[in-house]
Amino acid sequence: MRIVTARRISQMFFFLIFLWFCMVATLGERWWQLRGWPVNWLIQLDPLVGLGTLLATGTLYAGLLWGLLTMVLTILLGRFFCGWLCPFGTLHQVVGWLANLGRRASAMIAVNRYRRGQKVKYILLVFLLGAAAGDLISRLLGVPFQTPYLAAAIVVAFLLMGTVVHFTKTIPGVRWVTGVTVVAIGRVVHSLFTNGSRLLAASLQTGLLDPIPLFCRSVNLTLLPLVDGRLVSISAASRLYPGTFAIGAIFWAAVFLNLLIPRFYCRFVCPLGALFGVLGKNALWRVGQKADGCTACGACDRSCEGGCEPSSVIRTPECVLCMNCLADCRHDVMGYHLHASAAGEVAVPDISKRELLAALAAGVTAVPLVRLAGITGDAWNPDVIRPPGSLPEEAFLQRCIKCGQCMRVCPTNVIHPTALQAGIEGIWTPMLNFRMGTSGCQHGCIACGNLCPTAAIRPISIDERLGKGNFESGGPIRIGMAFVDRGRCLPWAMDRPCIVCQENCPVSPKAIFTRDEYRPVRLGGDIRLQGMQGNRLLIEGPVLPSGQFATGDYFVALDSRHGLPPARITDIGASGVTLADNPFTAAAGKGDRINLLVRLQLPYVDPARCIGCGVCEHECPVKGRRAIRVTAENETRERRHRLLL
Questions:
Q1: 263 vs 530, which has greater pLDDT?
Q2: Which of 29, 466, 536, 622 lies 20 to 30 angstroms, CA to CA, from 597?
Q3: In 3-state terms, what secondary structure has residue 265?
Q4: Which residues of 405-424 are buried (b: 16+ CB within 10 A; e: fewer)?
């Protein structure tokens, strides 16, 4: 079997298994639903997910150890993941191949040449890792300076060392030593004026451009909802995800750019490819020329997917091991072997030290600048309700890779991607929208936390979610709290009976309770008593429609001077009303004024019992801006957001 054929089989296998894992990330026990499928396996094989999480949190979630295997194999074999496994790379390669069918060899060589812009992916990688490394740098530089005298002594020592090194030039890498000295002095001086708590912060943003989370997010939120229920019914109800236009636009832009340059995303943007390029630049096995036999025909450049220029001095960090050069070479010069290419190699990515430092500094400083908006502090947005089990906001942003797995598995379709509600760094992270979906967040469901690949939503048990067993002392997990908008609530604002929120509250004892209040109904005139026939009152005055006033929520009463309680109406006819019980027999007389009252059960929320599940908001009959709405106040994950002592 030709090696290119083997590569294509591998690509097709991993592409199909990726799509299969996306499809079966649906809660259920059928063979085409979740049922134990390792749906996060390809995400776990992505070492950028593990590296970013490690830098941001100082810990590595157990499942992400698969990434170490990928890194080791890359060091041995080169960028095999890009050319043989990556489903996003496979899609780009197929689209680029289709776009260039029938083109002449000279045109193909021109379009597949190396371009200086391919270094952008390395700059993006350094920027994203710098944004994730803020806390780590803070810990490394966290030298305690208890007294000004100690700080001054350290500054003087660094100044003396830097001066000696700079002028004597006795140490190799004098510029690096000088740079480290300047940074250390700046850190010491800064510590004299502030504790530095706002100077450095970490945020995991690799998922924005990392191809595996990006492709997973795009398929979960934009592609599967388009075919769900048409070709095959994957979910119980059609999925909707507000704000996914940008996700789809970025995905299709990345795909269609292959019409200009094959594997455009892989060459210019992909930070995972940049990481593999760094790891595999001196791989044990590598593509290159043999010692003799090359005729400089350029055939090996015709279908090169990485733009690594194998016909001359090959750029090993750019080689994606597509093996097309081996298949196209008619003289058997190109090979995959243990020795370096006879024509020479460029083993260093085409990025200068200044560009590297600028990208790193930009990444490190970007997160503190974004945090000045206070989104993770006092200016937090209460409309951003995170799924149950979510870590506190700063820790959550250090782990979430925006893959959309939690949104895909949610059985009621209430987990959706944020736009800018959680700030720039929170874009496309999960939040709950109770107006959408089929219900609220079912308080017996723990699917999202058990599917999250990085534990941004930590896995919890049913007992912990409900506050039972060993977790009884802490009570159930609260993701927010419901608030009644009295200006929109039907009983409070419009004198219309409604107890939908109280009836649908799933908590026991219910978190929503009601208090009765009787209010007079506005009519077109006075109602007068003409006589009584048992429980039936004969009246005159405005016509009372039976469909409205015989629902059991309406009562009649005499003037307050009689001191009698209201009586409930059970039926209305053309000339009178029938009561469930007639207390007016001895007190009322002909011509007495009858008051028509509506009994309103006014809803109230008990903050000690409300868990913020959102069922009440979803079922509220006020279909625009709901009359009862859940916010993140009183959530369990952030102590400072709690309302209870």
A1: 263
A2: 622
A3: helix
A4: bbbbbbbbbbbbbbeebbbe
Residue 555's CB: how many other CB atoms inside 10 A? 20
Contact 469, 430 (CB under 8 A): no
Strand partners, 289: 334
Q: What letter represents residue 376's amino acid? A: T
Q: Which amino acid is at 612?
A: G
- Token pair for residue 223? 């592609």
What is the C-alpha to C-alpha distance for residues 129 and 244, in angstroms, rounded to an integer? 26
Tokens of 342: 């006879």
| Helices 120-132 and 271-279, packing angle to 10 deg | 100
Pairing of strands 554-557, 512-520: unpaired
637 and 460 Cβ atoms separated by less than 8 Å: no
Strands 415-417 and 334-337: unpaired
- Which of 592, 593, 368, 385 has its CA nearest to residue 482? 385
Neighbours of 590 (CB within 10 A): 10
Indicate the pairing of strand 314-315 with strand 345-346.
parallel
| pLDDT tens column, 242-256 | 889 999 999 999 999
Residue 191, number of CB atoms within 10 A of its CB: 18
List the end-to-end C-alpha distance of the chain, in Å, as a whole number: 71
Say which residues have a Cβ less than 8 Å from residue 193's Cβ, sequence separation at least 6. Answer: none
User: Residue 340 pLDDT > 60, yes or no?
Assistant: yes
pTM beyond 0.85: the answer is yes
Which of 447, 483, 449, 423 has its CA nearest to residue 637? 449
Cβ pair 613, 481 in contact under 8 A:
no
The tokens for 295 are 């005729």
Q: Is the peptide bond before 509 cis (omega within 30 degrees of 0)?
A: yes
Least confidently predicted of 112-116, 515-519, 588-592, 636-640: 588-592
Confidence class for position 174, pLDDT limits 50, 70, 90: low
pLDDT confidence tier of residue 145, bands split at 50, 70 and 90: very low
CA dihedral angle for residue 316, residue 321, residue 324, residue 326, rounded to 10 degrees: 70
Mean pLDDT of 147-158: 57
- CA-nearest of 213, 371, 188, 349 to 278 is 349
Pairing label, strands 554-557, 593-605: antiparallel
User: According to the 3-state scheme, what is the secondary structure of 185-204?
Assistant: HHHHHHHHHCCCCCCCCCCC
Task: Give yes or no for a contact between 214 and 136, defined as CB atoms under 8 angstroms apart.
Answer: no
User: What distances in angstroms separate CA 631 from CA 129, 385, 431, 443, 612, one per listed residue?
Assistant: 33, 6, 11, 16, 7
**pLDDT tens digit sequence for 47-76:** 999 999 999 998 888 888 999 999 999 999
Kindly provide the residue ranges of all beta strands, DSSP E only, lying in 440-511, ordered along the sequence.
481-484
Within 10 Å of residue 476's Cβ, how many Cβ atoms?
21
Query: pLDDT, tens digit, for every residue of 377-421?
Result: 888 999 999 999 999 999 999 999 999 999 999 999 999 999 999
